[in-house]
Design brief:
By secondary structure, the protein is mainly α. It has 26 helices and 4 strands. The model is unreliable at about 1-10 (pLDDT under 50).
Length: about 500
């Protein structure tokens, strides 16, 4: 009996670790199930239509972003066809993986099951991470790379095994192939190394090997940028200027609590930051948050840009909270835990009601559409394409034979290219983002259906224009297309030659 008792005591830690992992996987599978059940509710978002379009024109770079997201969308098209649930599955997997990895961060920092589950639930029920599983966006994968970089950094500092720099370098490289804003996290990593005891790695070969690996992964996109005169840099300058001018960068501090993190988890993030600064071993991670945060704030970045840095704070805060909770009397411990998890759940339920397309009709749908502009942009694309097809069919045969379709934004371009194939519509012509690089037909059309332009723009660019229809949606949802791009025109050839037009109307949409 003594031997059996000893065997059980030896197996208990491993069994406990497996059980903890099982609980984390359960939370991740629950998150995935929620998304799979709701992701087919409305339609594609305008950004998704751009990714779908770019997925048909694979390259090592695109004007608006690096190549990874369109590549994954290309794979998704091959596997699932034009299925919203299937194509969005990559985002679901990315979010679920981030949930598990963040829970594992808490375990590596010394947290038990309570800290791990708290961390996983807090990440799952925070607005930006939850949103990252609802649409196919580069933010979904960008968030995952930030989480993996933080996890690898914790493993590096805990084990003092410098080979973890290779894992950090690989995640950084993938981040650079996903979204260029990861450069701010790179600044945080380098600053954290210099400003903490991790500076000892500056003379370690594995540190430089990690940098080399990141650069190697990024190299194809870098060469693309060189060949295209760093067009993405100019695009980002344009977007930043637009965002600041339209007030999109206002409320940066407010958005940390409204977008980046579940409000009830905010105390954990604050505590986590303090604990990182107080812990010499893990102080590097405090700087990995503070430096990107300050750079985004001073540079007038959007509030959600720093969302990927919060999971590592929540993990450390949950570990500290678990230890503090253990010091309380049982009654106060139960009351404190009940209040926290009730608040986390209530706040999470509100976030789900805003972020997820839970209902196809009724009050829940109306509430989500009222408070979530991204969901409103999922309506009307199929109807737009059908309207264009009806306009095409109403034209005389000679005009149909030499017909082109021009678009004013990437959502319209993607809708015509992807959804228009079912109606036999020609490939669209556009100047927004990477569309400009694809040029125009070698035999330019003489009749054009013109989308996304005002009457003044259409009449000034093309000849013989007439109003032919309207863009909207049968549900009456007010979004960008129905409000600002409602008129559809049929026009003749452009007033300038096509080469002159292309030079004149190059645009970043």
């Amino acid at each position: 009996m003594a031997s059996t008792s000893q065997d059980r005591s030896i197996k208990t830690p491993a069994a406990s670790g497996i059980a903890d992992l099982a609980v984390l996987l359960f939370v991740a599978f629950a998150a995935a199930a929620v998304h799979i059940a709701t992701n087919g509710r409305y339609g594609f978002h305008r950004d998704e239509l751009q990714f779908l379009s770019d997925a048909r024109h694979l390259d090592w770079g695109f004007v608006a972003y690096p190549p990874l997201t369109p590549f994954l969308e290309h794979v998704g098209l091959a596997l699932f066809g034009l299925s919203m649930i299937g194509l969005r599955l990559f985002s679901v997997v990315a979010q679920s993986t981030a949930i598990v990895v963040t829970g594992l961060m808490a375990r590596e920092l010394g947290g038990g099951r309570l800290a791990q589950v708290t961390t996983a639930l807090a990440v799952f029920l925070s607005p930006l991470p939850l949103f990252s599983g609802t649409e196919f966006q580069y933010t979904s994968f960008d968030f995952l790379w930030w989480v993996l970089i933080a996890y690898s950094s914790i493993r590096l500092l805990k084990s003092e095994n410098p080979r973890w720099w290779l894992a950090i370098g690989a995640a950084v490289g993938m981040g650079l192939e996903t979204k260029y804003s990861v450069m701010f996290l790179i600044a945080g990593i380098l600053g954290g190394v210099v400003l903490s005891g991790a500076r000892r790695y500056l003379v370690n070969g594995w540190f430089w090997a990690g940098i080399a690996l990141a650069l190697l992964i990024f190299l194809p996109n870098f060469l693309w940028l060189v060949r295209h005169d760093f067009i993405s840099y100019h695009f980002l300058q344009h977007i930043h200027k637009r965002d600041v001018g339209e007030g999109r960068a206002e409320g940066f501090l407010r958005d940390q609590f409204l977008i980046c993190i579940n409000v009830f988890a905010a105390p954990l993030a604050v505590a986590g930051l303090v604990l990182y600064f107080r812990d010499r071993r893990y102080r590097m991670l405090a700087w990995m948050f503070v430096i990107p945060f300050v750079l985004f704030w001073l540079g007038k970045g959007r509030g959600y840009y720093v969302a990927g840095a919060y999971p590592m704070l929540i993990a450390m805060g949950a570990v500290g909270g678990e230890r503090w909770l253990a010091s309380l009397r049982p009654l106060f411990r139960r009351i404190t835990a009940a209040v926290f998890f009730t608040g986390l759940a209530v706040c999470g339920a509100y976030v789900c009601a805003v972020v997820l397309p839970i209902a196809s009709s009724g009050p829940l749908r109306d509430f989500a559409l009222k408070n979530n502009g991204d969901l409103r942009e999922e309506f009307g694309w199929n109807q737009l394409v059908k309207t264009v097809a009806d306009i095409r069919d109403s034209l005389p045969p000679d005009e149909q034979a030499h017909l082109g379709i021009t678009t004013g934004n990437y959502g319209e371009y993607g809708a015509i290219e992807i959804l228009g194939r079912a109606y036999g519509l020609p490939e669209p012509i556009g100047t927004t983002n990477s569309e400009w690089l694809r040029g125009y037909p070698t035999a330019p059309p003489t009749t054009l259906v013109v989308l996304g332009l005002t009457r003044e723009q259409a009449y000034s660019i093309f000849t013989g224009c007439r109003l032919a229809g309207h863009n909207g949606n049968s549900e009456g949802i007010r979004n960008e297309e129905s409000q600002y791009h409602s008129d559809i025109f049929v026009c003749g050839s452009p007033r300038l030659s096509w080469p002159e037009l292309w030079k004149e109307h190059r645009d970043f949409g």
